[in-house]
Amino acid sequence: MKRFTLVLFSLVMVLALMLTACKPTEPTKPTDPVPSESKETEPKPSESDPKPTEPEVKEPRKGGWLDEVVVSVIDQPSVVAQLNAGAIDVYVNGFGTNGLAELQESGLDYATSNGTYYSIQFNPAEFASGEYNPFRNRKIREAFNLLIDRNYINQEYYAGGSLLKWFPIMTNFGDYADLVDVCRRLEAEYAYDFDKAATIIRDEVAKEGYELKDGKLEKDGEPLEVVFLIRSDGDGTRKLWGNYLADQMEKVGFTVVRQEGTGADLGPIWISGDPKAGEWHMYTGGWGASVLSRDQSNIFQEMYLNTSAQGIGVFKANVSDPEFQDLGDRLYNKDYEDLDERHDMMARALELCLQDSFQVFVVDSKQFVPYVDGVVATTDLAAGVESAQITPYTLRFADKEGGTMRWATQPFLFNGPWNPVLGSNTTCDQGAARMTVSYDFIYDPYTGLVHPFFAEKADLTVETGTIIKKTLDWVNLDFADKIVVPEDAWLDWDPVEQKFITSGEKNEGAEVTAKVKSVVTFRDDLFDVVKWHDGSDLSMADIIMSFIMVYDRAMEESAIYDEAAVSDYEKFMDKFRGIKIISTDPLTIEGYSDIVYQDAELSAAGAGSLWINQFQGQGSFSQFAMMNSAEAAVELVYTDSKATEKDVEQMSLIGGPSLEILGKHLDKLIEEGTIPYEATLGEYITKEEAVERYKALKAYFDSYGNYWQGTGPYFLKSVDMNGKSLVMAHFADYPDPADRWDRYSEPMLADVDIEGPGQVTAGEEAVFEVYITFKGEPYKLDDIDKVKFLAYDSENNVVLIDDAEAAEDGKYVINLSAEDTEKFGDGATKIEVAVVPLVVAQPTFQSVEFITNK
Amino acid sequence: MATEKKNIALESTVEYSKQASRATAKRLIRFFFRRLILLIITIVVGVYLTIIVANMGGYVDKILDAAIREEVNMQVAQIAAQSGGMSDDVRREMIEREIALRRSVAGLDQPFIRRSLTHLKNALTLNFGRARFMISDHGSRYVRNIILERLPATLLLMGTSQLLLFVVSLFLALAVSRHYGSFWDKLIVALSPTSSIPPWFYGIFLILIFAAWLKILPFGGMVDAPPPPTKIGYFLSVLKHMILPAFSLFISSFMINTYSWRTFFLIYSSEDYVDMAKAKGLGSRAIERRYILRPTMPSIITSFALMLVGIWTGATLTETVFLWPGLGTIIYEAVSRYDTAVIVGTTIIQAYLLGITVFLLDFLYAIVDPRVKLGGK
After folding, report:
1. Pick from A308, A332, A363: which residue ends a domain?
2. Which of A44, A264, A816, B289 is found 20 to 30 A from A529 (Cα to Cα)?
3. Neighbours of B20 (CB within 10 A)
């Protein structure tokens, strides 16, 4: 009994210890900011100083709004519980549309962005076995648009949170807004109509001898069997609507073999398999659009044509109508005279893509990022919160400076080593790393355009006749008959001499032209105010070093050659024509390129881009010197593929075995006073300055235990790699005010209200007023691109499409003439208005119904 | 004469004893090698089967190939969309080059059979090599580092919960076996079916109660984010995070373990020699120690040894539910990502540990149980 008592006592002790451990831990005290040599340090007041009599004026906050962002990981099933329990503030990875109902029930706030978009992917190949494949027939595929009730799918499986989708262009991107009248007309034409779909399909298969017997399509007693590959993984919605579609098909008479499986199960069949083998007929496709694309003219070739670069067998098997094939290819190659022609081509392509229906699109699903009350989180319409460039600059608690934001993401943090060149590419890692980064230009989260960040303005020259438009004031657009690249512009790199090769040298004096010339001027005080997290000033050596990295890693003669870099280099050189540094005070870059975007802003930023950003983050001169030294010694390497080839570790600046090796190389650099690529960088930095930079990096490491740094609003203060958490702390030396990007805290999605008569008499004039507001305030006319309206008759046919007239801020008017109302016929009529703002790519739709009397 | 005879008898006894010792030694050595060879064969076969199963007989190559193609296509499409016009040739070349690179990284450029034999050789020599996709939290691709990094967390969680479970259930079982038919005995019997519920399921309930509702314990993880700066703070934070996963592992097996041991002790308590001891008037403590615990010792030792082996595997689903950064989550991830190198790495450790344990147990049985004779016929 004594022993039992002893065990019992031990248990009580253990429990007591555990309960003690339940005591909440003390919040970590904010530590000192990064060591820096701020020139504006105020002297300490001496005792003899007079006491201040005036109230202290608070300096406006600079950098990020928050004191700290604590990044940690959680499992999605516990997100709502953790938000409600106050354990986290925001779950940046977001929920799919299938989780919307749970979010709505929880009462939590959430931001919305694009999610996956889904399609029915057909196999249009002629089967080698000679077996009949109904989906070689375009009319049958086209009828599937009528066979599925997209609204039912949205309401039933996506909690009404998705956008119904007929076309490959995104429903909330600029092209849809531009073509909204065409889209809405076609959507009405291809609305759910089971009977019509069944009739078309049965008539078409009847031509091949299939007849409906006892509800089944048969030929010589053999059923018309199709294999439908249904994805069961992901958010699970493909399984739901896939089975719904299979049910619909069985009602038509198909015998559907439902083969459910994960991506891993089905990928070998539909991606790697030979479509002619006839192993499958249909697949529940899913696609992503994480970039807010301003120009989707490439999408028809991409999604339908056998010329698509997708490189998947089933795409090559599609034989499209020649008109569509030609149109899709021309749009991909931007083979049009002007924007009007492009508009017409796109409108026609929308019609033809539905007739082709190699893919039948179902819904644009959404992603929802939940957060607790009081959090302000900017969501890029395409990329969401975690992947938006602007997030670190706007993330805050409403009406509050400072504080600690608990940022939770999926358990894929530290899913790879962190190095700026080619470190981890998970959204979890990138989302955290992005907090340390600044830009020359930054993407607008709502329009996909760019705004100057540390750049200030750009003068853009394009070839005469180029189709381009300008929206924002910071770019000046000009045209020239010919843009000649100067001979002294840098074009390539000599890894042996370690010098840039000029355009003249590369092309042996032959004249080289470019389609675009962009002269980008940065802010005057760039090199005075922009600082690295180790306290060093940004210098030209940083910018040039970063540019050298584009080339040197891709050159076989280089000490840091990496085969993985060759593709990127070739892609870059395909369109790059040269760059010149016109001035370093202020920094002025003159770039030449053959890449022309439809928007002057994107073209200017693209051609004149010379900044310190790499794939995963920024790299300073000192960091690259250290990392390159380790790479050249093949002790650590930037990329995973090279690490496998050389059987060494991939470089990480934040932890693991890399740190010791990097430290050793940094010491060596300090000792030897190395200037890497001295033949080039020797012009921009002295040996003493280089050593100072190395020492600053070393001091930073000594303070924070990592070599990760940038020039962004937060720095990496601590990392707990096993615990999968990190802390980003406010960078006190960041130059810009915290409120600089506040206007992007929330998308200005228009609220639309239509007022008008409940009854209209055909043949008489009528007026409808459209009120457009944002948060109750009238939407400025300057911020609206256009307001279109479509009128539908009682049969849901589009009978009229026109523009509404601008009246005043927040108000448009639809004036219907007697001839217009005559078209409405008799009965219920609907007017649908599409408001297309300039400041946000997503149009707003609103409709009003009324009765038309003859 | 008599002395001579005595001497002869003594000599023959000594000789017999020597012969017996030699025979025992021979038997031991024969037994030792036979067992060793058998175990090695078992381990080799087991590991190779693991390699074949983990690779689905080579089908995983097709899965990975398709996944690589899909991923590269989407990535390049995104780059093309961002780059504002990439020529078809460049794009195709980029896709093909990237696919070739990734295939090479994943080892798909070599035939599966050849790879499987290399895996086997590496595994048996404890050269775990590089993981296909997975990476350690510290950024290392080496399977050894991936495993070693997670091992302490698993040993901590599993060690605590399983040791606690073993000791508590054993002693409680002994206690209730002494009071057969009592309230506590009946309670143990009645509640033993609760162990059919897996620990992760208890875990979800515990999370709901203590984290979501009472808000006194964390939802998961191993330490606060950010971790407390002081050692004692860190220790307490780990302890706090360990309560729920350890408790869920404990309670899910506690009842059935206690019930099993209690039944086991009851069986031994009803042996004839125990009755005989009782009849002789021996005290209950002495009976328990000499006549019940002694013969049950091999089973207790086996159970303890296997428990020690078990703690090296972690609790896959429980660790996943609690986001406990242990080996269990690694195995879960490795299986779901078809990372054969990691699966084989964790399996080989298990195989070796199990092999060594079984091997040692054979000898231990002979020491603790006089009825067992090594290599005896």
Report:
1. A363
2. A44
3. 10
